[in-house]
Amino acid sequence: MEITCNNPLIGEFKTPRQTAPFNEIKNEHFIPAFEESIKQGEAEIKAISINRQAPTFENTIAALEVSGKLLSRTMGIFFNLLNAETNDELQQIAQQVSPMLTKFQNDITLNPKLFRKVKAVYALKDNLNLSAEQKTLLENTYQNFIRQGANLADANKKKFRKLSAELSIASLKFDENLLKETNSYEKHITDINLLTGLPENILKAAAELAKRNGKEGWVFNITAPCYQPFMKYADNRDLRKELYLAYNSRSFKKNEYDNSEIVKKIVNIRLEIAQLTGYKNYADYVLEQRMASNRAGVFKLLGNLYKASYETALKDKHEVQELASAEGLNGTIMPWDWAYYSEKLKMKKFDLNDETLKPYFELNKVTNGIFGLATDLYGITFKLNKNIPVYHEEVMPYEVFDTDGKFLAVLYADFHPRPGKQSGAWMDELKGQWKENDVDSRPHIVIVMNFTRPVETNPALLTFNEMETFLHEFGHALHGILSNSTYSSLSGTNVYRDFVELPSQIMENWAVEKEFLDHFAEHYQTGEKIPAELIENIKTASNFQAGGYLSIRQLSFGYLDMAWHTLESPFDGDVKSFEENAWEKTNIFNVTEEKTCMSTQFGHLFAGGYAAGYYSYKWAEVLDADAFSVFLEKGLFNREVAESFRKTILEKGGTEHPMVLYKRFRGQEPTINALLKRNELK
Fold this sequence. Notes:
Number of strands: 9
CATH class of the domain at 358-547 and 617-678: Mainly Alpha
Strand order of the largest sheet: 3-4-5-9-6
Oligomer: single chain
Strand content: 5-15%
Distance between the termini: 67 Å
CATH architecture of the domain at 358-547 and 617-678: Orthogonal Bundle
């Protein structure tokens, strides 16, 4: 009881902008906070259910929308920590909390009395004089009940409860295994002669990592800032192969962190849920609420891009193979050779590599440049406020203000890898945006990356790809920051999965533009602006393998995803064999006997929200190329175009169908033409 009464997670936050009091929160606060949050949520739901007045939009749909705010806040804080700053205790709490949350959600959507009220309002939808946003909320609420089993017979409702609880636990375990497997690998090297080819700054970082681990020499791991440059630059082929296999066999080693059985379990549970609710497979269940609409739409996109990309990918491979053979490689190029010889080819063709560019992409200047891009486009500004508590000392908290000085959001920026942080990069919300009682409650947004760390002799210098990743996640952040919705479930990034990547991917287009780079790209030692010829090389090289190898690689993931989620009978086969069959048509390398597997580490599918949706990245490429063509035509910093994009896309969230929003901005439906032109396939 004392923990609940003195729990910093319960009650009003007495912090700047009512941000999470991370400096006060301890692990032991979470279980009591979840219990109290669920208790309050249950009371709010009960009040709606027993209301004797005739059901209306306000007393049923809007009331459901605003219920559970304490629980949403607690979840936002907890799951951000679970992904960005986890530990064994938090993972144990997640296993305990997950069934509680699933039960709470099921108690809402499987409540027959509550569903009758929702259905009664839905039946009157054409006579209620609702706004577009209200219509969307009503439609979403009704469909959510249906899709979560509200129409099932009692026996099947019980089954649905069991399946959804098992699914949430399995997804958590998948993520936990992957993180532990990633953290368990390190390569300790004491002979400098084995490390030829590696740039000085990579060697410095490896030496510092060794020192932190109490070892002499150099230590390499398989986090992105270490693994990727090692694969690009290390001359030692045996070591490249070792790291490649360590990375690509994660959670596929028949050890305690193996995810093979969990993949099967997740796939089969999803199939059972889909068929229980009236669908042939999980893809049909998911795609009903996507821009692609159905399997045919997805496979049409993948097929069109495959036809445009495959021969180009083979040419890319041939070109890299020729260089590798000329450099002395005896035999066929293998996957652990690809990044190494591709980088050499890129240097030969464009006089460009990561090490050439990194001195111009010092993290603080990149941050200022990307924030400045948002200022140029939308007039918003960012102010560091170190009085805002953070969950790790490295996290930078910013207040975001609109052109007129109005407060818009809090943005937390978390840049570097740590043992408690999942790999990759993502944007998340600690708190969404909504309006209630004439108050616009503004969002708290987090962007999390795994960028190259500073070393003793120089600051954090980003690769060009890391700078692009920053732009990408910042695009997601803008979607949250600029949200202007009434209902939190429709605000920010709460949109169709195959629409959510448009605001992020469109930002990457500025990465190769001189007008943008001239704002911030200066040599960290000399202050010299990035040379014009280097920018021209960047732009010329931006399509290097984009329309071929890189496109086919992305398509392979889309085909794998769809293969898993178009199964119509339970799967009990071999995960590796299934995977090879699923993406066989996209494989440009010889199949090896090496024990690697993508599925067991494919967090987007099995621990994230991209199941039957990984095609979204290619779908969004079509959208972002088409949308960016307007900026190319009217001006990179054209405020009129930017304002239109803000008002029709970024502010609107999921308040209307995404195609309606896109056509409002673009004046027409998107075509594949701009993407083919950008990738020089047309």
